[in-house]
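--- STAGE predict ---
source: upstream dedup step, 1 unique chain passed
mode: sequence only
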Amino acid sequence: MNTNSLQQHFNEPTRRNNILDLFMTTTDLSIIGLDVTDMIDDHQKIGTTLEVQDPNTKIQHDQVLDYKRANFELMKEELVSHNYEVLMNNKNAEDCYMILKEKIAAATEHRITRKQIRPTNNPPWFSQEIECLINARQQL
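--- STAGE serialize ---
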């Protein structure tokens, strides 16, 4: 199920000692509550509470880093300006990694702008290359 981005939510028996009722959702669905309650014949009733998004709310478009407009020279200067010997003195490898990661993230945020990407109704695997191939096939 995980390979298809589905998640089974009930792991309790609903008929004697067997799990017969499936409740599968995509992993990004917000589930507030799940419960197995009263008996109906020889099955227990299952109940769910879901958080659903109001269809009238505006969807926030994704933003990605715009590497074409990045100022890598200033980013390099910012990263070199830190005294890593002092910052990482008497720290274990995990702490040193976290310090370096935070410095790189801060420099990235300061020196690489973000751009908004247009939403698409195409599935994730539908690349520009595939679109060009389909258009070429349709022109035949």
